[in-house]
Amino acid sequence: MDNRPLTPQEVADILKISKSTVYDLMKRRELNSYRVGKKLRVDLSDVEKYKNKTKIPVQEAGLADAVKSTVPAAYEEQYFSSNNTFIISGQDVILDILCRYLNKHPAGIRALRSYEGSYNAVYALYQGEVQAATAHMWDSKTGEYNVSYIERMLPGTPAVIIRLAGRMQGFYVSKGNPREIRDWRDLRRPDITIVNREKGSGTRILLDEHLRKMGISGRSIKGYYKEYQSHIAVASSVARGEADCGIGNEKACLQVQGIDFIPIQKEQYDMILKKEDINTPAADAIFSILRSEEFKLELQGLGGYDLDDIGRIISET
């Protein structure tokens, strides 16, 4: 049997179900899956096993067939699959905690995570692959976070932007800052090597926007093309001496020994929902959790977050 690995979207196409339903099957371990790096994959043989396992013999179908016959074909998948699965795309630990609260919520929300950077998270929301995206994308022309990007990246799609937290972005440098790195222009010094974040991440956008304002090309900076997928990975690279400087939030710096943090800019970390989903049980649960004292106290215990406006709608597009 051809046993090639399949992406979740390919599995969804084979089974004629939504991609979110595939993630739900994986989470419930009804469909075997595994990771290749940060990507989920499913073997074709496991898809066939799942199909055979869920087949209902004609003589045993009974009520299932009777009910199914009353459901128009266009709504068949919606009727038989759970509409409570909710995928949140983003990388901050806030989202891990939020999903834990959602999974315990009385509304019965099954919350899943997609670990994408800001740009790709918003694009996935536009494509309908996730139900919520998070972002911290700075616009150097307006000096604001996220709003202008959301207006451009979700054309014709009314959306709501909800504040999650304020975070401090800065430089990760070796203990004592031996290279005396203080501002953005120091990054183009010939004695400085940096480590970068991947394209589409809010941190990469922050760097590129500042370089654009200063008329500096990224290719002139040593290490610009060496990319890592998380703040922790960047901080660890600096701690190991692989680079003199990396950029990330203060929270990650608190978790890595051997580095100092040079604050450079406060950023806003927000959640984006489509306005058509704002009155769903999942959205109601999210607002309830974000505005609860219990949730706020748990985040305060982590440190590194400004939570004054958590749960507040800051813009509607």
Automatic annotation (TrEMBL):
SUPFAM superfamilies: Periplasmic binding protein-like II (SSF53850). Residues 6-53 form the Helix-turn-helix domain. It comes from the Bacteria. Coiled coil: none annotated. GO terms for molecular function: DNA binding. Signal peptide: none annotated. Gene3D superfamilies: Periplasmic binding protein-like II. NCBIfam families: excise. This is PBP superfamily domain protein. It comes from Ruminiclostridium hungatei.
